[in-house]
Write a structure and sequence with these properties.
Length: 303
Amino acid sequence: MDRDASFLRAWTESAAAETLAEMPAPNDAAGTVPPASDGRRYRSVWISDLHLGTPGCQAHALLDFLRSIECDTLFLVGDIVDGWQLRRNWYWPQAHNDVVQKLLRKARKGTRVIFVPGNHDEFARRYVGHEFGGIEVAEDWIHVTADGRRLWITHGDLFDGVVQCAKWLAHVGDRMYEFTLRLNRHLNSLRARLGMPYWSLSGYLKQKVKRAVSYVGDFEAAVAREARRRGVQGVVCGHIHRAELREIDGIVYANDGDWVESLTALVEHADGRLELVDWSMQSRTRDAALRARVGVPAGEVVA
């Protein structure tokens, strides 16, 4: 059995173990989702590009986010598990396993979890129409918001010419991206010791390199055109690691970002309003408030 199949088998076995280890209390209503302790309760949440299985995945921040929110439907919009990296070099720390367990637990406790695979976890496209631990695998999805808008959910790699027409080049680019992330981690470790906030080298390069800016614009326009062709009012995607929420020629374009650099998610409120959540900013604000409350100077770690 190959690693992809082994991973999915382990995912299913984890779901069974979770069910036995944490049975719901007798007074729990079946199919209901309890409110989040801090009030972050949403109708729908979209996250993508977690890249579990890579050193760049910020699993601890992701766990913090998942523990802080509750929702009726959670969409996993591709590149959840980085199969490309795992085939080259197996990397699976406990924090990444904890993320999988948390997703399975949410599915078991009443959240509908829908997984739309991307190019890095394209192995899961063989299992479209199946469930793993209560998580549904779908090629794409149409979501209807509370205010009646139809949103097409897709990872977005089908609109990336490099991925579709020159996969070898995509793999080369993936390795260069990994190098940039490693450099970024060292840089931000130094910045943290100096009391400076997180800064994304990759994000800076994407904004400054003209070809990268052009690529992002072409990608967004192509996805919006396809959404219009499909007769929907908007599209939610990931893939390019650039969070965005705006209209393109009357079509709502929403990119939920990633959990490698930007730490962002897209959420739908009870009235259908869409919002991008910047978890890194919220975490910094929360940490600053805690430091102020306990009198710890900026740059020092709160115990």
